[in-house]
Write a structure and sequence with these properties.
The chain has four helices and three strands, in the order αβαααββ. It is α+β, with helices and mostly antiparallel strands. It has one domain: Ribosomal Protein L22, Chain A. Strand 2 and strand 3 form a beta hairpin. The two termini are 36 Å apart. The model has no long low-confidence stretch (mean pLDDT 93).
């Protein structure tokens, strides 16, 4: 490995120390509905994001709230010596992707059948901590 490549790898490793990631796979909510709630908390400070999710009426907000708490716990586990009150945690990235799709058939008039697509999604939250 060359010197520049090694230095760049060490720099990326240092940057990743302040990040914590949490993933939710195969959530039974359609990706479009999940993205509507995810857009509300992208780039927001963690405590404010938890308040937004708590008082949002959408069903997706409950699963995103649990996932955000998991990301915060992952950050605390990763940075054992760090004090969370002295850090400002921000939802730096949140991605909602399409998961598997259950395909069902519903009877329709005149002997026809309509397709029902039950969509699911995958969510990834990245929490970044910065010193106050």
């Amino acid at each position: 490995m060359g010197a520049r490549k090694r230095l760049r790898a060490e720099e990326l490793k240092e940057n990743k120390k302040s990040l914590a990631i949490a993933r939710l796979n195969d959530s039974p909510i359609s990706p479009r509905k999940m993205r509507m709630v995810a857009d509300l908390i992208r780039g927001v400070e963690v405590n404010k994001a938890l308040n937004i999710l708590q008082f949002n009426g959408k069903e997706a907000s409950t699963s995103l709230g649990k996932l955000l708490r998991s990301a915060i716990a992952n950050w605390e586990q990763k940075n054992e010596g760090a004090d969370i009150s002295q850090e400002t945690l921000i939802v730096s990235r949140i991605e909602v992707g399409c998961g598997t799709m259950l395909k069902r058939i519903q009877p329709a008039p005149q002997g026809r059948a309509h397709r029902i697509r039950k969509r699911s999604n995958h969510v990834t939250i990245v929490v970044d901590g910065t010193k106050n």
